[in-house]
Design brief:
This protein is of the alpha/beta class. The longest helix has 20 residues. Strands 3-2-1-4-5-6-7-8 form an 8-stranded mixed β-sheet, sandwiched between helices. The chain has 2 domains: about 180 residues, NAD(P)-binding Rossmann-like Domain (Rossmann fold, 3-Layer(aba) Sandwich); about 90 residues, N-(1-d-carboxylethyl)-l-norvaline Dehydrogenase, domain 2 (Orthogonal Bundle). It has 12 helices and 8 strands.
Length: about 280
């Protein structure tokens, strides 16, 4: 199964990055969002990433030109779905939102198109319930920033077709990712470990154990993590991680995933991390 035409739904933090790596791999990419300002912002971020790549000697002028030529932005859902071999959603971590989008796309998608979800924690089987052919649904969990991070976590539910799994593994290799294959369990492999660590780091900060900088430094220098858990939470978004934590706490019946009071307060104050300019750090 060749995945040449890719449609990305959601032009935000994850969506624009997924669109970029697919376009850089030579695929024809359609980037969708609900209004033109969001689409334009996503395309502008891709252009900015490519400009930085040129400045650092990672991208050539020719590669930038080819990548941008492979990209189109739209605000019409039907137009985005038309002709797509794979539809990748990158919208907020709310099951009802993903159901609403996939239900709508099910009316417009090509027969045999793959429905891929960038969820980092929600059950793939539950997401698949809203489409006419659940065997076409699979999890494709990318990591931020997508154009730098090498991992692609592929999550299959019991009904996912083997041809879909094979196609996504080939797709991951083509866009330069190292793939891991994971069963559909709450939190999969990465979120289950990462969110537990992040929540404990926030509790430590809340209790005054150490500063944010020193808690992060402990994991970077002591455990060779490339980035500390608090700075990573800023990059992912406090609101996103809070939603994941609340879901995992209930799904796994494990209080370790409960969002601390500090996190809830910061989210209510709009301190969401890098995207808002302030979280555990100022950006």
């Amino acid at each position: 199964m060749s995945l040449e035409n890719v449609s990305i739904f959601g032009a935000g933090t994850m969506g624009h990055g997924i669109a970029q790596v697919c376009a850089q791999a030579g695929m024809t990419v359609c980037l969708y969002d609900v209004d033109q300002p969001r689409v334009d912002a996503g395309l502008a971020r891709i252009a900015k990433n490519l400009a930085k790549g040129i400045a650092r000697g990672k991208v050539t002028e020719e590669q930038r030109t080819a990548t941008l030529a492979n990209l189109t932005g739209v605000t019409e859902l039907a137009a985005a779905a038309a002709g797509a071999d794979i539809l990748i959603e990158a919208i907020p971590e709310k099951l009802e939102l993903k159901h609403s989008l996939f239900s709508a796309l099910d009316q417009h998608a090509e027969p045999g198109a793959i429905f891929a979800t960038n969820t980092s924690s929600i059950s793939i089987a539950k997401i698949a319930e809203c489409v006419s052919d659940p065997s076409r649904v699979i999890g494709t969990h990318f990591f931020n920033p997508v154009f730098i991070m090498k991992l692609l976590e592929i999550i299959h539910h019991p009904g996912t077709g083997n041809d879909v799994i094979d196609a996504i593994q080939s797709f991951g290799a083509r866009i330069g990712k190292e793939c891991i294959l994971v069963r559909d369990v709450p939190g999969f492999a990465t979120s289950r470990l990462g969110v537990a660590l992040g929540m404990e780091a926030i509790r430590m900060l809340e209790e005054g154990v150490a500063s944010a900088e020193d808690i992060d430094k402990a994991m970077v220098l002591g455990y060779r993590h490339p980035i500390g858990p608090l700075k990573l939470t800023d990059l992912v978004g406090l609101d996103v991680r809070m939603n994941i934590g609340e879901y995992l706490s209930g799904a796994l019946d494990n209080a370790a995933f409960n969002p601390p009071k500090m996190m809830k307060r910061m989210v209510s104050e709009g301190k969401l991390g890098q995207k808002s300019g302030e979280g555990f750090y100022r950006w």
